[in-house]
Amino acid sequence: MKRIKKIVIIGLLGLFAPLLRAEMDIEITEGIESALPIAIVPFAQQGPAPISISSVVSNDLGHSGYFKPMSEQYMPARPTSPEAIQFEQWKSVGQNYIVIGQAIPAGNQYNVQFQLFDVNNGSQLLGYRMTSSAQDLRRTAHHISDLIFEKLIGKKGVFSGRIAYITSSGQGASATHRLQVADADGFNPQTIATSSEPLMSPSWSPDGRKMAYVSFERKTAAIYVQTLATGQRVKVAEFPGINGAPSWSPDGGKLALTLSKDGSPDIYVLNLINNSLTKITNSTAIDTEPAWSPDGSTIVFTSDRGGKPQLYRVSSQGGSEKRITFSGSYNARASFSPDGKNIAMVHGNGNDYRIAVLDVASGTINVLTGGPTDESPSFAPNGDLILYASQRGSGGYLAAVSLDGKMQQKLVFDSNAVREPAWSP
Question: Which part of the chain is the TolB N-terminal domain (predicted)?
Answer without folding.
Answer: 25-125
